[in-house]
Write a structure and sequence with these properties.
By secondary structure, this protein is an alpha/beta fold. It has 17 helices and 8 strands. An 8-stranded mixed sheet has the order 3-2-1-4-7-6-8-5, sandwiched between helices.
Amino acid sequence: MADFVQELPAKWSAAVTFSRGQVIGLLAFALLLAAALVLATDVTLTAVVVIITLYYLVSTIDKTYLLFIGLRGGVAVLVTDERALAVPDDELPHYTVLLPVFDEPEIVRTLMHGVGRLDYPKDKLDILLLLEADDTATIEAFEEGRVEGVTPVLVPPSDPRTKPKACNYGMSLDLEHSEYATIYDAEDIPDPLQLRRAAVMFAESPPEVACIQARLGYFNEKQNLLTKWFSMEYDQWFTYMLPALARSKCVIPLGGTSNHFRSSVWREMGGWDSFNVTEDADLGVRLARNGYRTALMDSVTLEEANSDAVNWVRQRSRWYKGYLQTFLVHFRSPRDLIREIGPVATLRFANTTLGMPLSNVINLLFWCSVLFWYAGQPAVMEKLFPSAVYYVSLLLFTVGNVMTLLLGMISTRATEKPYLLVAALTVPAYWVLQGFAAVKGLFQLFFRASYWEKTVHGLSNEGEGT
């Protein structure tokens, strides 16, 4: 790579999963918990259940609060077609578009079809198709269907073989020209005016707005029940939760695509962490810690929703693992994190990156305990859930889950997608899938932390010609 591509300092990199202090802390906690279980089993298990129940209560209240804040809208900036097209071509900034692809020969045509619609002057646009140098099948597919204006970049094979490593390499080749840059995934179909809209937003924003996140949606959301669940989840996340976090001045965990950023700030941040498998979420935290803000843009990029359960678990387990990596990196010095982003933002960041994966693992255990209770009401359950804890847990299990279902139905109505109603009513089955994905992600965190498990694209033909 070019000399100006900075290596991240060790404190910001997930190359080492656990810091020395974290290893010592985890070992000390494990030893104390084991000793407590031996000396006072019932009391210790009850205490653990109480702590988890209180966490669920607080987390549920906060997520519901954020969702209602997000329903108010008014955070994502709308740049109209007229404003986007009003800027003369010669006044537009130079843009770099990164398209990382690996082992996806079947998706090249769809990728070109989507990016090929971008309305931006060719002399101000570099579209870099990032190909692994030993990915012969995808390279040959691109050569057969070469599109004017797209430059193939062969990324030298090296570990870790991750998307952020490829993107860092691509940026290193184009940074001297690039004023702004963005990433699209292989199957993405972006709003044709999205680059123009982002350029207008950047021009009208203060320098501390270093990144603009567009909204993501799915072109095949009606394909099956899984894609409907996935679409409903994305609608809630990008339409309500991210605006609520932005309104609350909390950290915005960037999505893996359609985030636009100032290239100078990217360089200042040292690029993406090649070892973190949710590199954009990590970059979003680093931006916030350095005083930068992420703005939200009312522009949609359509992706392919995962329509296969096994493939979905592969993808989601990587996301959960990356969230855990991001938490561990930024909690190497909790005091510094609190000082830089504030206590409320720190708690919400921890709830997203640590709480989300772990709670999905714990959900499986709690659901099993419900089955045990109904199967025979074993006496041990009464010890684990003394009266006060039992009623709070029952409240969360009934009212909490009903409220979650209700919010899902409100979301389908607010987004004018009545065809997602069945998905909203059957979403508990989706939670079970999330639990399995979280278990897998937690396992890989310890044994294959930087392994990028490939998500298979091209399982739907709905995006072609859309």
